[in-house]
Design a protein that fits this description.
Elements (H helix, E strand, L loop, with lengths): L6 E6 L8 E4 L2 E2 L5 H10 L5 E6 L5 H13 L3 E4 L9
Parallel strand pairs: 1-4, 4-5
Antiparallel strand pairs: 1-2, 2-3
Length: about 90
């Protein structure tokens, strides 16, 4: 049985005062549809782990809010980090 690709939530800075763009495995997902899109993706997996990658200028509260949605579905959250000196 082949291993599934990791489930990655990418949070992209869209500008100050603007809501960031959210991608679920590279597919742009409107914020109001994120919870249902996540549930559909999780149902297809044996491993309920979601990796989060956010641009450095994204408001941290927004990241935490998405983490809450992910954990509400009983998935594990893994924060992806960028090594010092390799910032975007």
């Amino acid at each position: 049985m082949p291993l599934a690709e990791p489930l990655i939530v990418r949070i992209e800075f869209a500008g100050y005062g603007l809501q960031p763009n959210v991608r679920l495995n590279s597919q742009l997902v409107p914020c109001e549809q994120f919870a249902s899109a996540l549930q559909k993706s999780l149902k297809l997996r044996a491993d309920w782990v979601v990796h989060i990658d956010a641009d450095r200028d994204v408001n941290w509260q927004y990241v935490v809010d998405l983490m809450d949605v992910i954990r509400r579905d009983h998935a594990k959250v893994v924060l992806l980090t960028t090594p010092i000196g390799h910032e975007r």
